[in-house]
Design brief:
- Keywords: Membrane, Transmembrane, Transmembrane helix.
- It is a single chain.
- The protein is about 30% helix and about 30% strand.
- It is an alpha+beta fold and about 350 residues long.
- It has three domains: about 100 residues, no CATH class; about 130 residues, Jelly Rolls (Sandwich); about 80 residues, Phage tail protein beta-alpha-beta fold (3-Layer(bab) Sandwich), CATH 3.55.50.
Amino acid sequence: MSRKSFKELLQKYLRGDCTPEEKAFVEHWYGLLETESGETGQQLDMDELEDRLWNRIQDKMDTAEEDESTRIIPLRTVLFRWVGVAASLVLVGWWYFAQRPDATLLPSLAKSIPAPFTQEGWIEKTNESANSVAVQLEDGSTVKLDAHSSLRYPKHFAADKRTVFLTGDAFFDVARMPSRPFYVYAGNVVTKVLGTSFFVRNQQNTKQVRVEVVTGRVAIYEEGAEEKTTSNGVVLSPNQAATFFEEQQHFVTGLVEAPQVIKTPEAEKKSVSFEFDDTPLVDVLTRLEQAYGINIEVESESQNNCPLTADLTNQPLYTQLDIICAALKSTYEVQGTTILVSGKGCGD
């Protein structure tokens, strides 16, 4: 078992996604830690607990390899010791087998944070209704939890960070606190923000996690990426989205299905107008870029001076682009987070 596999197992345990076998494995080593050192999960943070448990496993494995024949130990003591070591080895052997590609693991039916992580103050909300449910966090952040989704979070966040665990889909409106980053764990993806609003869609059936940004900037990365020499992650701006494909272990970036005008102090004072009268295409596209925060490029510079007369106000972005391209005999396509407008130009 690798250190990375053990870290992922602890994260699953914390989320309540373990199988009975995985749960037994973690609780076995936690029990040894508590019995032999007197330390508990309530006294340690997550990183410290992981280090202590991992070191405990390594110590026990080293003990198992010692040559007991050179030591004089009462038979009863030897028997009990090797029963304990054998049990540990069976659990490690099971975990190694479970990590094989052909291993089949039963899905967990756990609905709450299992011991020893059921620290006082941890809360779990599960939305059993058909409508979204608002969850208010202590820092002022709000989470709109979709139907059949669950959120686990502490009643009081740590002093240096705010961490929650999501199963399913939710919309997050995070209070801005630069000194206390907000982390959302969903599947194998971590979303890190300082203060913004975004969607997280954890599609467990397809093993995909999708993040869509509404306001602010969001950094998303594969869980454990901070320990790798090359990080697997992306930074998203408003109207941008990224989907993590677990099997391929990579992100695919793009635009949200319905881009919205970005809210700014200027935009709130007056509605954004998209009324154009013989306006060059370059100016039309510049206004769209500024309104939506999306990069729009033309394939040929000969298109830039083509005039457009149209009222695109109150139309969604892709409808606006449809009207523009119909009037100028052009086409457009979304390429990643950029929109490319193609055409021969108005003089051809």
